[in-house]
Amino acid sequence: MDNIICYCKNITEVEIKDAISKGATTLKDIQKQTGACTGNQCAELNPSGKCCSADIN
Ligand code: FES
Question: Is-above-0.90 flag for pTM?
């Protein structure tokens, strides 16, 4: 399943997992490698109304 995780940057679960398999171990690594969780429109774009950081963690 290729669920969108970060709605601000349009980053999918597959992309997050790919970054993890390439060595990302922290939220910061994920941010650096994918750009996920670097947006600031979470309340408008993410259906959960929150930032995706909890989902990434
Ligand atoms: S949903 Fe990921 S930064 Fe907003």
Answer: yes
